[in-house]
Amino acid sequence: MTTIAYRSGTLAADTGVCRGNQRVGRKVKIARHSDGRLAGAAGRATYSEAFLSWFCSGEGGPPEAKCDNESCDRGVVFEADGWIHIYEDGGKYSYCPGEVPYFAMGSGGPEALGAMFAGADAQTAIRAAMEHDAHTYGDVTWLTHDAAKLAVFKEAAE
After folding, report:
1. pTM, whole model, 2 decimals?
2. R_g over Cα of the chain
């Protein structure tokens, strides 16, 4: 499972990987393209890996997202000009610039949205999800549109 949060040009996510209710490892689930776009993926680990690989390489089209009883695959791309593109089972949809002031998805998405509603930045929203969602854990990673370096907050509660 994954939680992804975006606000004010910063994309943040946890690193926990679960199989059902079992914590099985850690993985970075966000990426920055050389043109400044940001992306994140949630759902099955194989989908997330394929989505971020597609996003970074630009080769072919995005992988097919699937939804079943265990998980729903979703990928999201954030453009610096404010466009948000969501890829999920059934296709793609987009938000126009300014349409949503902040965005969150994944197992801890509701908790992250609540934190951002209360004024939290994207990184704090992920920490709030870690506190209240059993499937959100690990480190908090984040990227911005204008910084190519992946930042990691390692004092996250598990």
Report:
1. 0.90
2. 14
